[in-house]
Structure formats: structure tokens, C-alpha cells
Amino acid sequence: MNKYAERIYNGIIKENPSTVMILGMCPTLATTTTLINGVGMGLSTTVVLVLANVVISLLRKVIPDEVRIPAFIVVIASLVTVVDFLMQGYFPALSQSLGVYIPLIVVNCIILGRAEAYASKHSVGLSFFDGLGMGIGFTLALMILGGIRELFGSGTLAGVQVMPSAYTPISIFVLQPGAFFVLGCLIAIMTKIMNRKKKTKAVEAATVCPSSGCTGCASSSHCGRRIFEETAKAGLKDQVKKTETMTNGGEQA
Question: pTM of the prediction?
């Protein structure tokens, strides 16, 4: 996997802002009452995230370290203002539905966090793909969260009736407790998947042993052969120490 594809993968799976890093919880929980709201919020954040990463990466050698955070906020606020005006002009219904949460993208910790942790230290290309990966991961999480809440809470999906007419909507799903419940389930599922992948990699690493032996192996301490050899060496050292102690004691006697 090349470094650009890795940034996309990390943003969607390994470092997903909502289900792994638990960032941006305010819009995640408040705006995902419907699938459309989740998509709109996710795409708006993605546009700001990508553009902010690119601009900050371009200016990373110009902005002094002492004022980097205020400079980042100015860049992000300018981009959010443009996105907010465009949404008001072209998507007035969605803009009205999302309300104040579009302007509040300015203080979204995902955008400021990626600007500080990544864009200010890496090239424009890597920063672009980092923002794109994080934005896609955030959008997918909001889409799933909004889709599940709308489906069970209203019986619709993207405004289209999906559940049969006999279905009684579970209203708690479109309320705040429903948001926490669904998000908790998504985080649990993602954690389970990540733990399973870690175990699989550990098993694969333990079964692959280079011809040069442990000296040429980059595996961690979970390797069975390495554990055996290190244990044998430690036991041999203890035996040597005991022999030396007995020998010295016999000589002194």
C-alpha cells in the first residue's frame, strides 16, 4: 500500500474520526436524525477539511509557530464561511435543517486536529489525501448513523418510506438517547473488527520466521520461537550464575 492510499485507509478504517478517534461528537450526535442530514454534514466537513489541509500545508513554512493555531482558525473560518454561503444559496432546505452546525465546523476538533497534527508537517499531496480520507470516514460514519436512526425512528430512508405501513416508528432513535445508543453500537463493532485484525496480524507474524533466525526478524515479542529462545537464554544464564556461586562458595570454604 502506497503512502497516499494509506492516508485514505487510515481515515476510513484505522483512524476513523467518529468510531475510532471519537472526535467531532457534537455534529455527529446532533445532525444525524436523517440520512440526508448526515450526508450533508459529512460532505460539508470533508470539503472544509480537504481545503484547510491543502492551504495550511502550503503555508506551513510561512506561518510562525507562535501564532500557528490562530492562523489555522482564520483559514478554517474563511473556508467555512464560503461553504456556508454556498449551501444557503444552492441547498437552502439542507442549510436550514443543519442550522448552526455548519458555522460550528470552524471549531470542529477533527479539522483543527488534522491541521496541527498532519497538514502543518507534511507535503500538500499527503495533506490532501489525509483530509480526503478523514472526510470520507467521517461522512460514512454519519451516513450509517443517520440512516439507522431515520430507518428505525421514522420508517423512512432519505425521505422515502421503506418500512411497511404497519410498522410503528421507535421514536427514541430520532432523539438524543438514540444517537448515543447507535453510536455506541458502531464503536463496539469497529473495535471488534480492529481487535480481530490485530490478532490476525499477530498470528501471521508468529508463523513467519526468516532464514536468518531471530536476529533478522522484525516481529514483536509475540513470536513463539523468540519467546522460547529468550527463555532458554535466561534459564542458561541463571544456571551459570548458580554454578559460579556454588564454585565460589566451595573455594572460600
Answer: 0.78
